[in-house]
Amino acid sequence: MREIKESQQLQAYLTQHGLEEVFHEPLRPDLGLYAFEPGEELCSQGGKADMLYVLVKGKIKIYTTSPEGRTLVISFKNPPEVIGDIEYIRDLNIINTVEAVSPVHVIGISAKRLKKHGDDHAPLLRFLLDIITKKFYVKSDFLSFNLMYPVEVRLASYLLSVCYDESDEGFEGRLATSEMTDTANLIGTSYRHLNRVIRKLAEDGLVERSGGYLHVRNRIGLEQLAGRNLYEH
Questions:
Q1: Per-residue model confidence (pLDDT) at position 141
Q2: Beta strands in the chain, from DSSP E residues, in sequence order
Q3: Of the chain's two ends, which shows fewer C-beta atoms within 10 Å, N or C?
């Protein structure tokens, strides 16, 4: 993580995402603009929730880890999105791990400063309420339908989310073959079955394994296979 010390850029993001009223003048001196690189964690499950972030550029991946060490992807998010809102309201430790997929910019503010200047600010509270209720709806939809889809559909959807960011045409990601065990856990399947599905997708010309990575070779074909994107809402 690095801090971007450019007040004009921060102001531009506030204007772009309609956040000027949400973060009113008493909060402005406490706002910071931060950058995260792909693969970098914004917060880790179980950690202390001392910051609230608003995603203003890029794409993030949200996943959870069970006590047994198994992981499962919950969703990918695009701007505007809030990280740490439920933890802030309920005074909890971090619920899920959040990781940058593409280059990410977030507006951040410490929870302590937010409580001092924001707890009675209606536009901020309405903003958090709207974001939180959407999250509960998405989680319900995900738990109800995700694992009902075949593994090839889940993998196609996951690859599209990891490898592309609609707001950044220059970003084209890839999946390291060393991460296949984690990928199998994240989409809820076995490592062996995941490899069978990858071989089938490669035979169909949709993906290719080379240089230690899995590359997308036919984005349109993957989109047709995935149908609706299971992980982006």
A1: 62
A2: 2-3, 32-36, 41-43, 51-57, 60-65, 71-77, 81-83, 97-100, 104-110, 175-176, 207-210, 213-216
A3: N
Kindly list the domain boundaries of the chain, sorted by start residue. 2-145, 149-226
Instruction: Answer whether CATH 1.10.287.70 is correct for domain 149-226.
Output: no
2-145: which CATH architecture? Sandwich (2.60)
Residues contacting 110, CB < 8 A, separation 6+: 30, 50, 51, 52
**Could you tell me which residues come within 8 angstroms of residue 148 by beta carbon, excluding any fewer than 6 positions away?**
none
Half-sphere exposure of 21 (CA within 13 A, CB side): 7
Structure tokens at 20: 């000027």
Nearest one of 74, 77, 99 to 186, comparing CA atoms? 74
In terms of Cα–Cα distance, which of 132, 128, 142 is closest to 63?
142
pLDDT per residue rounded down to tens, the chain (233 residues): 999 999 999 999 999 999 999 999 999 999 999 999 999 999 999 999 999 999 999 999 999 988 888 888 888 999 999 999 999 999 999 999 999 999 999 999 999 999 998 989 999 999 999 999 888 776 666 665 667 889 999 999 999 999 999 888 889 899 999 889 989 988 889 999 999 999 999 999 999 999 999 999 999 999 999 987 778 86
Q: Which residues, 6 or more positions from 224, have their beta carbon under 8 angstroms from its beta carbon?
A: none
CA atoms within 13 A on the CB side of 124: 20
Question: What is d(CA 222, CA 161) in angstroms, rounded to the nearest whole number?
Answer: 11
